[in-house]
Write a structure and sequence with these properties.
With 497 residues, the chain is α/β, with parallel strands linked by helices. The protein has two domains: 236 residues, P-loop containing nucleotide triphosphate hydrolases (Rossmann fold, 3-Layer(aba) Sandwich); 232 residues, P-loop containing nucleotide triphosphate hydrolases (Rossmann fold, 3-Layer(aba) Sandwich). It is built from 16 helices and 25 strands. Strands 15, 18, 21, 22, 23, 24 and 25 form a seven-stranded mixed beta sheet that branches. β13 and β14 form a beta hairpin. It is globular. The termini are far apart. The structure holds adenosine-5'-triphosphate and magnesium ion. Adenosine-5'-triphosphate binds next to β2, α1 and α14.
């Protein structure tokens, strides 16, 4: 067999940001018609390296060789002209435009070079979505899509470019298992057409399945590159983390106290003419010190459940009590005040203000606690922010750094920190480990356990059954807007009630 051809090679790439060496003399290969998977902890430099290949960022030093010829793309446009396309980690869609307009933005199909040919765009968009097995109408406004569907539109947008080199930066972080399976098939097709792929993900099992090669970065340095058949899950974790790590998580014991949250017949009808419910008479209770897991696929109503609990849907029916206090009909602010807080799934849109610093984002939801009389107590604020940066090991030069300069996973940790600073009694976590590396996942689990030990009720949803099984004291299964009572899985008793 002939060895695989390197089509694009990055040599000795260094990237300095003020206060951070994001990449330190990294070599990286992209193989013709193969998938090289890039892994590493949050902040290891994966996205930065890919942005350099895609012309979004310029390296401080080092060079890029395409087919042996040196290139220096200065913009995504220039990279596309060289046949390099990228699916960004963070969604880059315009919510006020429709799906096909988003797919063809800046590459509009025109009639005779003058007017946008909406018909042709919609037809082509429909074909791309059909290829991804997503029956989304190309005329749907992106704002009305759930986050997983937006991610699929993001993928379609890059497929529309027909590039020879395709970089996918965590394309599946918001996808359901079925949607991931479709993407895996699409990747196989692309490979058959000789497209060369870089794939970034924190889902290690998915990586074993998709990758032909694996490259590991740690703290901005290249740690290893190997053909996939030579490596194991254990190898990947050890190379990433730099030490032996166990793949199984067992939460520490936490005593379960009285009921803190009771939900009775919570119902949310579909909007408009559509029949049926987004939430169908949901009822359950949560105890202090309990970690309750909800397992359900994307679109099963999990996000709506959390939104209703926070008061985002004024037309929801049913009752919610927090510590004997009736929340139904109360505003979001009043609910937060009463002690319920949400860590949302979509951190970009709902969780963070990109133009503010890490510290300001953290204290945004809890300003009151830091107001001693009329001015902000900056000492108190500094203490709490500093403590959380340490406890969650958020990788940031200092608390004043802009949130937009953090890696995706570290931004997610800031969202968690922000919720913790409100000192809730009940914490709702929507996919708490989305985009978070194996090591940091354990930290998030540790935090959940610690919170339970402090008497908080923790309610979390996840699409990863393994995660739910490892973390939850009880599991509720959700599908089509309803809790399937019959499917409630009683967990083996870890502790006494
Ligand atoms: N614009 C920027 N300004 C300053 N620092 C930055 C900027 N972009 C990235 N960094 C820093 O560079 C480092 C690498 O970030 P990068 O986004 O490449 O990580 P990553 O490996 O993609 O992590 P994740 O898995 O969390 O997405 C981080 O320490 C990050 O804070
Ligand atoms: Mg990244």
């Amino acid at each position: 067999m002939t060895p695989d051809q390197v089509i694009l090679r990055a040599e000795q790439i260094t990237k300095n940001y003020p206060g951070t060496v994001a990449l330190d003399q990294v070599d990286f290969n992209i193989y013709q018609g193969k998938v090289n998977v890039l892994i590493g902890e949050n902040g290891a430099g994966k996205s930065t390296l890919m942005k350099i290949l895609a012309g979004v960022e310029v390296a401080t030093s080092g060079r890029l060789l395409l087919d042996g010829r040196e290139i220096s793309p200065r913009s995504p446009r220039e990279a596309e002209a060289l046949g390099i396309g990228i699916i960004y980690q963070e969604l880059n869609l315009f919510p006020n435009l429709n799906v096909s307009e988003n797919i063809f933005i800046a590459h509009e199909l025109t009639t005779g070079g003058l007017l946008i040919d909406h018909r042709a765009q919609e037809k082509r968009a429909a074909q791309l979505l059909a290829r991804l097995e997503q029956p989304i109408n190309p005329k749907t406004l992106v704002a009305n899509l759930r986050i997983g569907q937006q991610q699929i539109v993001e993928i379609a947008k890059t497929l529309a470019l027909d590039t020879q080199i395709l970089i996918m930066d965590e394309p599946t972080s918001a996808l359901s298992n079925a949607e991931v399976a479709v993407l895996v098939r699409v990747i196989e097709e692309l490979k058959a057409q000789d497209v060369s792929i870089v794939y970034i993900s924190h889902k290690l099992e998915e990586i074993l399945q998709i990758g032909d090669y694996v490259t590991v970065l740690r703290d901005g340095r290249l740690v290893a590159e190997a053909p996939m058949e030579q490596v194991s899950l254990k190898w990947m974790v050890e190379k990433m983390v730099g030490r032996e790590a166990s793949a199984i998580y067992t939460p520490a014991a936490h005593a379960i106290g009285p009921e803190v949250l009771r939900v009775h017949n919570l119902t949310l009808a579909r909007e408009g003419k559509a029949q049926g419910y987004l939430l169908d008479h949901v009822a359950f209770s949560l105890h202090a010190g309990e970690i309750l897991g909800i397992y359900g696929l994307m679109g099963s109503g999990r996000t709506e459940l959390f939104e209703c609990l926070m008061g985002l849907h004024p037309f929801a029916h049913g009752d919610v009590w927090l510590d004997e206090k009736r929340l139904s009909g109360q505003s979001i602010a009043a609910r937060i005040e009463s002690g319920i807080m949400l860590i949302p799934e979509d951190r970009q849109r709902e969780g963070l203000v990109q133009s503010l610093s890490v510290a300001h984002n953290m204290i945004l939801a809890s300003l009151k606690q830091y107001l001693s009389r009329f001015f902000l107590s900056s000492r108190k604020e500094k203490e709490s922010v500093g403590r959380l940066i340490q406890e969650l090991s958020i990788k940031v030069p200092n608390a004043q750094a802009l949130i937009s300069s953090l890696s995706g996973g570290n931004q997610q940790k800031v969202v968690v920190a922000k919720a913790l600073l409100t000192h809730p009694k009940v914490l709702l976590m929507d996919e708490p480990t989305r985009g978070i590396d194996v090591g940091a996942k354990e930290e998030i689990f540790d935090i959940m356990t610690e919170l339970a030990q402090q008497g908080l009720g923790v309610l979390f949803v996840s699409t990863e059954l393994k995660e739910v099984m490892a973390m939850a004291d009880r599991i509720l299964v959700m599908s089509k807007g309803a809790l399937r009572q019959k499917l409630i899985v009683p967990m083996p008793p870890k502790k006494h009630w």
